[in-house]
Amino acid sequence: FPKLSNKMKTILATRYITVPEGVTVDITCRHVKVTGKRGTLERSFKHLQLEITRTGDKIRVDSWFSTKKALACVRTFCTHVQNMIKGVTYGYRYVMKSVYAHFPINMNAVDGGKTLNVRNFLGEKVIRVINMHDGVTVKASGVKDEIYVEGNDIELVSVSAALIYQSCLVKKKDIRKFLDGIYVSQKTTIDPIED
Q: CA 73, 89, 139 angle in degrees (round to 5)?
């Protein structure tokens, strides 16, 4: 006899995503393509066992006979698509600031914002070169010791910001005392969100 699973299953779990005006969402075989005024984002969700149907300006996401782990994927899928919709509508901007006690950190965006060069971190002579991910640009904000990391994909923007942060970690010193580095100070959108 086949071993019966003692995990309790939920017969049907459903969530809805509302598609705003000016945004088109194409879903074919769990491959999502979102197009808005700022560009296009694509993402594949082939690994999720979900039933996705389009009805007017709403997307219905169903999960049939799901265990607890599969149920969590319903909201995860909805959040990813909502982040894509927000990205192609408003864009994402991470504001990063350099913090230093003595040696001023010098940051230069080169190659049209595709690369960031960091000099004089803790007085070191080495030039730190951080390459942004595709679709992400870095630029000076106009404020001293501040840069903007911008793009449409929230994951690529946040990973690029993390690369900048990780490039300036203090080694072999007490990090409670040596607080030098480049830190994310604000997470916002490029275009302001109208209420």
A: 105
